[in-house]
Amino acid sequence: MFQGFYNLTSEMLSQTRNLNVISNNMANVATPGFKKDDFQAVTFREELMARYRGSADNSPALLGELAMIRTADETVTDYTRGAIRETDSPLDFALEDAGFFCIQSGNGTVYTRNGSFSLDEEGYLILPTIGRVLGENGPIQLPTDAVTADRQGNIYSSDGQQLYGTLRIVDFQDYGNTLVKTTGGVFSSGEEGTPAAAAVHWRAAEDSNVNPLNEMTAMMSGQRSLQSAAQVLKMYDHLMDKTVTQLGPV
Question: What pTM, to 2 d.p., does this model score?
């Protein structure tokens, strides 16, 4: 009977973490360049089960192994590219190929697919709440938002006569072992990345790769699993109470 407490409690904890991941995905459906996360769970331990025929039995019959607890393993990021959507902003950029924009944050350089930039009070191109956008020669400063850009990431004056800067775009060989998602949906890395010749789509933004219908379905499934585990756990508690009060010593 006590085994059920381990099974049900571990399921409730796992589904709670799963729902947290799904909720974060849902909250970023409209965030440009956001990459969804998937919750992965594994069995914590396997117990060897055996059958005994009595206290003097020295040759138990093996029944096999049974997983007692399901627990969190890791959260895996899906780096699939989102759809590219045309915008009216001259400070919006989207990458048509693999690669990341480089942003100068308070914690060093971070990387993102979110190219919905704006200008700060000093005229620097920024990713709001994160930091300044890096070019090939440092942060890019613009005198105005009336600019034009080409597919190589070069940003010019509106007449195309003056070059203000070139977007720094890098890529990594192994996203899973190199990139770590941080606050704001951007990624940090212990490596600098290698320059990438990704085609830049000006006046466009990459949509989040979160599918709202899939996430809603996963959320409903997780909630039902959590509720079912909680209800059965109450039944176990009720049975334990009856065992103590009705079958215990008089």
Answer: 0.81
Report which of 55, 61, 37, 77 is spatially closest to residue 178, judged by C-alpha positions.
Answer: 77
pLDDT of the residue at 72: 77
- Nearest Cα to Cα of residue 67 among 1, 16, 15, 3: 3
Amino acid at 136: E
Within 10 angstroms of residue 178's Cβ, the number of other Cβ atoms is: 15
End-to-end CA, the chain: 22
For the ranges 35-49, 89-103, 135-149, 223-237, the lowest mean pLDDT is seen at 35-49
